Each structure stands twice: as C-alpha cells, then as structure tokens.
Amino acid sequence: MSHTKIGLGLAALGRPDYINIRLEQDVDKSIDGFKTNAFKVLDDSYALGIRDFDVAPSYGLGEQFLFEWNNSRDHSDVNLSTKFGYTYVANWEIGFNGKHEIKEHSIDKLNEQWEVSKALLPNLKIYQIHSATIDSAVLTNDAVLSRLNELKQKHGLKIGISSSGTEQVKIIEEAQKVVFNDRALFDSYQVTFNLFEQSTFHILKQLLVSGKTIIIKEALANGRVFRNSKFQEYEAAYKYLEKLSKKYSVGVDAIALRFIMDYLEPTLILSGASNTNQVKQNLKALNFELNNDEISKLKSFVVFPENYWHERSSLKWN
Description:
Layout: E1 5-9, H1 31-47, E2 52-54, H2 62-73, E3 79-84, E4 86-88, E5 101-103, H3 107-117, E6 124-129, H4 142-155, E7 158-163, H5 168-176, E8 179-180, E9 183-184, E10 186-192, H6 201-209, E11 213-217, H7 235-248, H8 252-263, E12 268-271, H9 276-283, H10 292-299, H11 305-313
Parallel strand pairs: 1-2, 1-12, 2-3, 3-6, 6-7, 7-10, 10-11, 11-12
Antiparallel strand pairs: 4-5, 8-9
C-alpha cells in the first residue's frame, strides 16, 4: 500500500478565477463569500484527516486566508507550504482580461514576499520557488539561492521548487546542482504529474529514493480527466476511467489520484478542491488499490509533453 498522503492546495480557494474546467458556477465570488468557503473547506479537510496545506502569494487571498485560519484554529500538527516569485494582480476582478499573476524571481521579490509568508511560522515547513524556469535564471541567481539557504538554516525549513511546462525534467536537473557546504539546497520538488503528463516519472523516482519530498500538483490535469466533449482525443481514457470508477465505486478523480499513488508513490498529492464534497471524493483514493494491469493501462494514456502543455496554455481562467 502506498504511503502517499493527500494534501490541499489553495489555488482554487483564494481567488475568484482559476485555470480549471469548472463545472460548478453557482458560487459566491465576493471576498467574504470566498473566505467563508475557504475556512469551511480547511476545517472540513482537517476533520477528514488532511494535515498538509499548500499556498502561494499569487493565489489571490489564499495565503491570508490560510494564515487567519491557522492562527485562529491553533492546530499544532499542520504542515504548511508556500512559495515566492509570483504576484497576484487581478485585484479580485471577475473575468479579469489580462495576466492574473506576474512572475518575478528577484531577490527583492523574495524578501518582500518572505516578510508576509513568515507569519505562517512555525507551521511553515516548506518554502518554494514558484514555477522555477530556466528562462528566469533563478536557479543561477546567487543572491536568491543564498537567501533561501539562509532561511533554511535559520528556520529549519525545507527549501523547494515548483515546476511546470515542457522543461520540468531539465529544471529539476538544474535544481539538483545547487549545493551549499556540500549539501543540496532543495529538499522538495512540487511537480505537475498526472495521467496525461508523466514525463518526470524516472527523475522523481530517483529523488524519492534519495529521500526528497515529492509533491504532485495538477493531479487531475486541470479537470481534463473528466469527460469533456472538447477533448475527443481522450475518449479512450474517459471510457477506461469510467470503467474503473464503476468497478471501485468511486469518482473518476479518485481513480486518477490512485493511479499516481500506485505508479509513482510520491510523498504528497495536492487536492485542488474548491468545496468539501470534492475533498471527500478525492480522499476516496485512499481506500483501494489498482492492480498492475490497470496501472499499465492507465500509463498508456500519456501524451507528449509539448501537446499537453500547449493544450493547458489554451485553457481559460474561469
């Protein structure tokens, strides 16, 4: 049985628009409405056994919501993670026509965002570079890397990266080269991995063997694992997911999550749930195991990373 845990990512809980194929449109998109919902989902997730919560400054008010919730509940056993490098700029404008977040991997941005994020201590366990890329040169920025190492030593944090895009393997390889006093800076890797995007499998397996923390995001491919007439190329995958869903009496989401657990066995998979029902459905993945034939069949639905990421880039914020 896999030891993978399920955690909660707050990307869909902290801002009114998010890159996802959302089915439920009847939600209160006011700040108060979102805060009330976020606190409910956080409370319910905790009651259901979730202890790992991941956020970022670019998740709208997600970091503030998590701080207020954590402060008011005073749970001693939660593990929080956040990031630096992206700033939310949509200012809660519904249907904002433009970039919702701006990337900046500078030392100034790190120091600015750390001043806010450090309020999550002592429950803050992992601090990450948000969507590290080769282009941003953050993995060769000595000022940023030295500061992260300083924070690691001072606060006992794990330092991590999150990655996206077609160059995930290359990004991880570059991150592994960053060393201070003969010790790797990065202890944690948050990676996009799912039924359709499996390009990092081998390097993640190596990292797991070496004791690194592997966190999986976008495990449901931004909603693309659910049957959708816009994605005819996934018809065979939809049919098989629905067949397994019926066999195990769980939703397609639980099958997609269980596939990652049984195939990759990461440390943590983040649920991107936006309500309690979705959390409950996701957690059903913990109650069964797929057999080798089923894992093998699900592996076969992988697509080329270029195709996967091109398709993802065309998804709308909604």
